[in-house]
Amino acid sequence: YKRQKLICRQVAQGLDMTASFLPKPVTGVNGSGMHTNLSVSQNGKNIFYSADGEEGISPLAWQFIDRILTSANDICLVLNSSVNSYRRLDPHFEAPNQIKASPTDRGSMVRIPIGNEKSARVEVRSVAPDANPYLTLYTVLRTGLEGPLTAGIRSQERYLPDNIYTAIENFSASEYNASLLGEDIRDKFAELKLSSADRCPRLLGSLIKRAEIQFHHEVTNQYLWSKF
Prior knowledge:
The protein is an alpha+beta fold. It has ten helices and six strands. The two termini are 24 Å apart. The relative contact order is 0.17.
């Protein structure tokens, strides 16, 4: 992940441009996501694949998806941990803000790509590009394998938060997150994100604010790090 960021930055510099990993860097344009594709193998075999399964994946894979959908609002802050992340989750720009799974619907939080016995996988599309990749992978894998499971979750109409404050409330109140991360880490993470959110305008409107670019853009980051 760090190498990919470095390559993007170098390519951009070569084109006399700069790289930004903001989820929503430009007003009125589709945002950027860190679509996270996962599969699980056992004894060298992809156990998410099933030739006869619904959408070509196994019951285990569907259970993995259902567990993620069950805890979608609880873990949303991990996958979308900045104020700008919620600017991206706008349904007018093909954003995956719906808590459902689909092979084709780009508004679904989880997509099931076409695959075979080697490539069958689950794609979590709601992850923002500025999320912590290590915490994201841990959270998605553990939730998909061990998280709570609500029956009939795929038939429910639910949506991800449209602002970070709701996401923080959901995250902080979640007993599942206390077991996932530990109560102290859960509370500290929420505290840090609340502090960061309070430095941004609460009523964002539809325009990307200058401060969002200033404090998240790669050029500014490099400048600020040079001061330490």
